[in-house]
């Protein structure tokens, strides 16, 4: 991996999460969590908390690990998913992120929930994991691999730290081939990836992540498109984002309203993207 490219990308990721709009949006609208919700039944699109919990429970189900198993949450943010898996699935979760202010919150919230003995949080980049070989039963990413400068290098690291038979789960975005979407959708996707520092999302044309996961040495790779499960939240973000995005564009500062822009553009260009769950296993030796 080219360190210059990588550190340049990490700086962009940090800048994106450090924006006032990102801090306010994630903290006050999603309570510090930074992933989409899972909607089924008659859940209102505004029931964010319940939808977020359901998405976390879907992750626990896909990991399928027994209580006490050790898992790595790569790109853990403020640790909402880690706490959910520790408290509701009994897992021991090691979270890792590049944002020190997120990790402070993760530790405080884990302590407040009495989960210190089942969670730990480390500052670091998932391209270079500071953990020994075969030290986890499971590794997951929740909406963060799209930020990677070099997803191949990240997947090799995940393979290294997983024990044989260990489970890998990704909840990530992909997109259809450029020629299968409208020209305006391709432009919108490129804009969102650039402003939200998500270079790997552009790389993740349908099927590409599966191939990268296989190339990293995993077997039993399956991907499920669950876009319809999270669409109600995209619709809610569209409604909330229309006015701020309009203002951002009017004053020529779209980068200051990048989350509003993403909500609006994702809703208006649904042919440009999908939301998928990929699961795989590290083969037994
Ligand atoms: C959309 S947020 C998701 C956070 C968390 N998984 C959740 O669901 O709430 C993506 C997170 O990945 C982190 N991240 C991005 N690139 C990273 C890297 N190279 N190493 C570690 N964390 C990274 C970001 O700092 C951010 O906290």
Q: What does this protein structure show overall?
A:
The chain is an alpha/beta fold and 285 residues long. The chain has one domain (3-281): Rossmann fold (3-Layer(aba) Sandwich). The chain has 11 helices and 7 strands. The chain has a 7-stranded mixed β-sheet with strand order 3-2-1-4-5-7-6, with helices on both faces. α6 (151-161) links the parallel β4 and β5 (162-174). The longest helix has 24 residues, at 227-250. Mean pLDDT is 94; it is low at 1-5. The site of S-adenosylmethionine has 23 residues, from α1, α4 and β2. S-adenosylmethionine (SAM) is lined by residues 10, 13, 17, 33-35, 75-77, 80-81, 96-99, 102, 125-127, 142-144, 147. It holds the Pfam family Methyltransf_11. This is Methyltransferase domain-containing protein. It comes from Actinoplanes oblitus. InterPro entries: Erg6_SMT_methyltransf, Methyltransf_11, SAM-dependent_MTases_sf.
